[in-house]
Amino acid sequence: MKISVIGTGYVGLVSGTCFAQMGNSVTCVDIDEGKIAKLRQGIIPIYEPGLETMVLENHEKGTLAFTTDIQEAIASTDVAFIAVGTPMGEDGSADLQYVLAVAKSIGEHMQHYMVVVDKSTVPVGTADKVKAAIQTELDKRGVDLEFDVVSNPEFLKEGAAIEDFMHPDRVVIGAESETAMQVMHDLYAPFMKKSDRFIGMDIKSAEMTKYAANAMLATKISFMNEMANICERVGADVNKVRHGIGSDGRIGYSFIYPGCGYGGSCFPKDVQALAKTAKDFGYTPRILDAVEAVNYDQKMVMADKVIKRFGEELSGLTFAVWGLAFKPETDDMREASSITIINALTTRGAKIKAYDPKARHEAESYYLKGNERVEYVDSKYDALTGADALILVTEWQEFRSPDFDEIDKRLNSPIFFDGRNQFDKERMARLGFEYFQIGV
Ligand code: UDX
């Protein structure tokens, strides 16, 4: 099939590349000329395992093209994916201006029947708006063309996006017409070992599925963080409680790791957007509001522990920070807990020596830009030299079994704040560390 993917952000680039890998002819479109020029040279704007090789291969083969010319792309397309950003507006709702601008362009340029797919995470009811925006342009042109708008929410996890796309645990499609449903089925069939992973439904339910999935996962995390905070106060150990409850198949082990709060491009934005939608429709979402509030506070828990240990005034102290990205295997720092923790400490006068295997550039150029108290280093051990304590924020694999002697030797004193509960507290005590965890 001939596919256009509009928006070469994270979701668009991964989806376009994987569709090309399956033998489709894909054109990725973006208005950012610099980005398209780089992609044409094989320079990938994000770090995602496996992506670069796949982009290069398909670009060379000619199955994956990059352009800023939406007119040309749309004119020869069977299926157009809208994969542009839906940033959070000031009131917490998703800002649809980019999605609707793409819909307008599609209406301006389409030449024959097309399936238009909402891949961006969009509030319930957006497909209707996309449809109306396309129809308005067709009416202006005075042409009578059939088209379908379909909702196909994305469930990719950063750091495992290629794997998730190539072997999906489900593909959710919301469509009104049988033709569109069949087109989507044909498109995704090669990715699925079992056809029961294709879940067709009406458009609104598909739009809602994405939010419900992310809200459920975010709820599990905030719930566990709340349990951790209670454990800490009553003298229980959340790591043991986690084991204890996870063995119940109905609860399960996944997504019940307490930590410094969830970040990323999805959970924070989607929980708030769903809460906003609920309120717009006259319902007060008490659980969603609590999930968000708990997460907001959780991002401060590690900084609070540092402040409790060292006092409110932190000038003259230096803290080593391991991990800046919102999670391992990505350079993404959107809504990362590291931002809250570092800013909380530096505003109290502390200096930070930060190390992250991939996110240094993001931190330096955007998320911690201008914070003169942060120094970036190129190895985890360099961060420790002369520091008064170590704070582990992101659980990259290279932090899993560090050389504790080296840590001890380099730190001014062996004080370790572990925001991801990576180590056994008895062992850490034996090694002579003053060791702080979440929920213990
Ligand atoms: C998430 C969803 O998993 C994915 O299906 C959706 O399409 C987009 O949002 P992603 O944001 O890439 O994916 O990251 P994920 O691995 O889900 O982690 C999100 C955040 O939750 C991270 O900050 C992570 O550290 C945190 N988390 C996760 C916990 O604190 N505890 C857990 O047990 C799991």
TrEMBL record:
Q: Please give the superkingdom of this protein's source.
A: Bacteria
Taxonomic lineage is:
Bacteria, Pseudomonadati, Campylobacterota, Epsilonproteobacteria, Campylobacterales
Q: Which reaction does it catalyse?
A: UDP-alpha-D-glucose + 2 NAD(+) + H2O = UDP-alpha-D-glucuronate + 2 NADH + 3 H(+)
- NCBIfam families (UniProt xref): NDP-sugDHase (TIGR03026)
As for family, the record states: Belongs to the UDP-glucose/GDP-mannose dehydrogenase family.
User: GO terms for molecular function, please?
Assistant: oxidoreductase activity
SMART domains for this protein: UDPG_MGDP_dh_C (SM00984)
Pfam families for this protein: UDPG_MGDP_dh, UDPG_MGDP_dh_C, UDPG_MGDP_dh_N
Which species expresses this protein natively? Answer: Sulfurimonas diazotrophicus
Which InterPro entries did the record assign?
A: 6-PGluconate_DH-like_C_sf (IPR008927), NAD(P)-bd_dom_sf (IPR036291), UDP-Glc/GDP-Man (IPR017476), UDP-Glc/GDP-Man_DH_C (IPR014027), UDP-Glc/GDP-Man_DH_C_sf (IPR036220), UDP-Glc/GDP-Man_DH_dimer (IPR014026), UDP-Glc/GDP-Man_DH_N (IPR001732), UDPglc_DH_bac (IPR028357)
Q: What EC number is given for this enzyme?
A: 1.1.1.22
Q: In which pathway does it act?
A: Nucleotide-sugar biosynthesis; UDP-alpha-D-glucuronate biosynthesis; UDP-alpha-D-glucuronate from UDP-alpha-D-glucose: step 1/1
The protein here is known as: UDP-glucose 6-dehydrogenase
Keyword annotations for this protein, in alphabetical order, are: NAD, Oxidoreductase
Can the keyword GTP-binding be found in this entry's annotation? Answer: no
Does the keyword NAD belong to this entry? yes
Stretches assigned to the UDP-glucose/GDP-mannose dehydrogenase C-terminal domain: 320-425
